[in-house]
Design a protein that fits this description.
two-stranded antiparallel ribbon, nine-stranded mixed sheet, alpha/beta
Amino acid sequence: MKMLYITGIGRTKFGVLPQTLQELAYEAMYNAVMDSKLSINDIDAIFVSNFLGGPLNGQLHFNSIIASLLPGINIPIVRIETACASSSIALKQALYSLSQFENVMVLGVEKMTSKTILGTTEAIAMAADRCLDQQNGLIFPAAYALIAQQYMLKYGINHDILEQVSFINHKNSRLNPLAHFFYKDVTIETIRKSPIIATPLNLFDCSPISDGAAAIIVSKEKKSDRDIEVLSSQYVTDAISITQREDLTSFKATRLAAKKAYSEAGLKPDDIDILEVHDCFTISELIALEDLGFCKPGESSELVINGDILKDGRIPVNMDGGLKANGHPIGATGLAQIYEIVVQLRGEAGIRQIKNANIGMAQNIGGIGGTAAITILGRS
């Protein structure tokens, strides 16, 4: 692909927040513009990622709401929804649009704590198959519990590995002031003794319900030495229901999207210095490491045990805390991953900065692998 650049990034804190959907969106956009060398008048179009604005906030047509936040700036604005992968797909569309525009903003935003837990759970379930999954009670924790059961049986691991994955992500989140769990010191004992949600997954195997927003600006031309190159952006779509999968221990869409991304960027797994994976549940982090080619099937637990995914390890993973502890405001999640990689590649991550970060990868999935997006970024 022709070299394109990330020229500005911004986000809000993630968590249970007092701000409205509109306020979160505005804060992220403002921060992205302030981070760049551009003004809001330099932005030619905006792609908005939002999944739950309708059921949880009573607000669709959110692209026009964004226009209301930017009076007098009458530019094309489009809302994109592909469940948890929405913002990565919005990024891909923004990159496509640079054939026509010079600078495009991508905004991801979600306000998830405005309803009861039952109402939010029902809304999130819309990312699954209505006939095959929802009507049979297969909400996401139950689906991932089935995946975890199959994985543990197939490869002979126990819940201790999942506890370690959770612990590492929570430890990373304590280095990230914007993370949902930045305030909370989570111990192995806390994780181990937390309530069972769906066997074998307990409370700390599951990502939280979060509010938050993130925004990035992509440009045709490099604007400063802090700009980061987009080396590849690829996505693949697969069947949405796990009842239509031959193998629950791997996500075909991730494997195919990663293969395309590596090919486009001219890279291989050993070239990646920092990784963000879609750990909506702890089991999905193990599967991601395998599907992305960092180890063979069934061997990701060894990366956890050997410390390979730690800050000073072979492939640092989710240094911001991941979905597990940074938070998972669905429409903003993929852009939050991009935000972290850009901060790391710029060398601006502070106490969570990894050494010699030149190339980063993000994996963002929606609907239990129904959509998988892979983004690879490099230092300019």
